[in-house]
Amino acid sequence: MTLKMKHSVMVGLMGRHADRFHEYHPARSLAERLEAVRQVPGADGIEIVYPQDFGADVQAVVRQVRESGLPVSAVNLNVKTEKIWQEGSFTSPKPEVRAQAVANLKITMDLAAAFGADLVTCCPLIDGHNYHFQADYLQQWGWLEACIAKAARHRADIRISLEYKLNESRNYCVLGDMGRSLYLCEHLGLPNVGVTMDVGHALIARETPAEALALAHQAGRLFYVHLNDNARDWDWDMIPGTVSFWDLIEMIYYMDRVNWDGWVAYDVNSRQSAPIESMSATIAIVKMAEQLVARMGPEEIAGFIAEGNPATAYTHLFKSLL
Predict the structure, then answer these.
(1) Average pLDDT over residues 276-294
(2) Which of 71, 86, 170, 202 could covalently link to 128 via disulfide, CB atoms 3.0 to 4.6 Å apart?
(3) What's the pLDDT at 17?
């Protein structure tokens, strides 16, 4: 195997974890979270979120991250949690709100350049609809295309990686699956617009993650990968391979097939374990999955795929686990 992925920790996940009922881990300062990342074996860099991780003094945070010595894999734009985005961001019916979403995406692109990164990622979860006859789909899609195109032309040296999700916060997100995401990329025709392939989001969209990854690669739009897991019913952000084991193995196999040497970031929640422990286990498990694929034999797996006989394939695959 020639897989040379780089492992990135989403720095926000090293702090507070809570749901509607309980707080599992308290809030921590950015300095504390950066120090926590340094304690995760195998972590090569961080993904940081604008504006939540930056606060009032953006340049002070830029200096702080630079001084940490941790490379930035991507700057993630959050356009969902603040009150301004309640009716949408890139597809808000209010032109001034759409303009602010574009302005924030441009700021995020400039921050990525300041960190020496070439990538921003954004999951427009607030853009979509909840009911029939709530949104004008033609108008909504046009707004999305216009906003992304305007931001992408801001600077050609920074790539925009759009992360799709079936639902949340909207019952139906406008970018709900890989197909719609690739359609947007191809329709815009801009080389710096691509897709973040999140395994958990592929699972709840009833996609086969490895197939979705292969499609994005063939389209030349695979910019970034998030690894996590769930049971295809909700985006639980679990440790990779703990539920959908064979999906992880197949993902690793195809990442090797397409010679993926980019970043992999981990969108994994920590409820039962401390964040450092969860993220350490996450990276270790993915590295062991790489070793398993190597033991199973990529050439042998390719042969089983060509043969198309699951009985033969799974007999070999399970024997490789012994």
Answers:
(1) 97
(2) 170
(3) 87
Whole-angstrom distance, CA of residue 306 vs CA of residue 93: 50
Higher-pLDDT residue of 128 and 271 is 128
15 touches 25 (CB < 8 A):
yes
Residues 6 or more apart whose Cβ sits within 8 Å of residue 179: none
Question: What's the fold here for domain 6-321?
Answer: TIM Barrel (3.20.20)
For residue 217, the model assigns a pLDDT of: 98
Question: DSSP letter string over 126-187?
Answer: TSEESSTTSS-HHHHHHHHHHHHHHHHTT-TTSEEEEE--SSSSSSEESS-SHHHHHHHHHH
Q: Are 219 and 185 in contact (CB under 8 A)?
A: yes
pLDDT at 2 over 80: no
Express each pLDDT in 16-27 by its tens digit: 988 889 999 999
Domain boundaries, the chain: 6-321
**CB under 8 Å to 216, separation ≥6 — which residues?**
178, 181, 182, 194, 195, 197, 222
Q: What tokens were used for 27?
A: 């809030």
pLDDT for 271 beyond 90: no
Q: Is 193 left (phi over 0), alpha (psi -120 to 50) or beta?
A: beta
- Compute CA 50 distance to the chain's CA centroid, rounded to the nearest angstrom: 15
Task: Cis check for the bond before 51: say yes or no (omega within 30 of 0).
Answer: yes
Share of the chain above pLDDT 90, in %: 95
How wide is the angle at C-alpha 83 spanned by C-alphas 23 and 9, nearest 5°?
50
Element of type H or E holding 17: strand 17-18
What's the chain's length in residues?
322
Taking residue 116's Cβ as centre, other Cβ atoms within 10 Å add up to: 9
